[in-house]
Amino acid sequence: MRKIFVLGHSHIGALASGYDATHPPVAMEFAGLHNPLFTPPLHNGRLTQPLVQQLHHARADLHIAVIGGNEHAAMSLLNHPRRFDVVLPDAPELPVQPGATLLPAALALALLEQWCAPHVELLAAYRAAVPGRLVHLEPPPPVPSEAHIRRYPDSFGDAIAAHGVSPALVRYKFWRLHSQFWRGICARLRVEFMTVPTEMCDADGMLIEAAWNPDPTHGNALYGGAVIAKILREAA
């Protein structure tokens, strides 16, 4: 394999940092959608010309999507004035918050569908623009530590001060639902869905401390390097 092209939102940062730190035996090109050149990324349901030109110039053997990924955190990172929880259909044994309102999993998935609609359109356009293999990456699982999130609140600072951080298990459940949603989207679009490397998850399925970034939701360079290693093992 000569080259991997990666297109995506903020979680692309961990991969770029991991690439710089580990120097894997493959060329990688990163197109972050925070770049004003790629804003907006779509026009009439298709990738804009600057993105198309970047893709064609890259001549990549494998394409990676890191699109969206924080919708589960937007839904579940903060305590709601009326506490809520969800029962996972595939893990009903997980405990729920005492006194919390239980949202049907189908309702939570419907909300995710609304929030993720622009990202689904973008992934579909990416799929239409490139031949061959396209892999969409599962975002990192939640950081279990409330202390870490409070120490590095990023843009959530005022909201955390006002409402507090929701329990880790609630955040984990919404991450699982988020992954379930995207797994279904990828199957429909003929895109491969790659899960988080198992070594990046602790015994409860959440992000290991060594992979925490100094913010509430992203992985660091160690995490990015592990994801790249998995891409090279399983998709290259």
Number of domains: 1
- Identify the strand order in the major beta sheet: 2-1-5-8-9
Mean pLDDT: 95
Give the ordered list of helices and strands: EHEEEHEHEEHEHHHEH
How many alpha or pi helices?
8
CATH class: Alpha Beta
| CATH superfamily grouping | SGNH hydrolase
> How many β-strands, per DSSP?
9
Question: Could you outline the blueprint of secondary structure elements for this entry?
Answer:
Elements: E1 3-8, H1 12-22, E2 27-32, E3 42-43, E4 46-47, H2 49-58, E5 62-66, H3 71-76, E6 84-86, E7 101-103, H4 105-129, E8 134-137, H5 146-151, H6 157-163, H7 168-189, E9 192-194, H8 221-234
Parallel strand pairs: 1-2, 1-5, 5-8, 6-7, 8-9
Antiparallel strand pairs: 3-4
Helix pairs in contact: 1-8, 4-7
Could you explain how this protein is built, in words?
The chain is α/β, with parallel strands linked by helices. It has a single domain (3-234), classed as Rossmann fold (3-Layer(aba) Sandwich). Helix content is 43%, strand content 14%. It has helices at residues 12-22, 49-58, 71-76, 105-129, 146-151, 157-163, 168-189, 221-234; strands spanning 3-8, 27-32, 42-43, 46-47, 62-66, 84-86, 101-103, 134-137, 192-194. The strands form 3 sheets. A 5-stranded parallel β-sheet has the order 2-1-5-8-9, with helices on both faces. Strands 3-4 form a two-stranded antiparallel ribbon. Helix 1 packs across helix 8. The radius of gyration is 18 Å and the shape is globular. The mean pLDDT is 95.
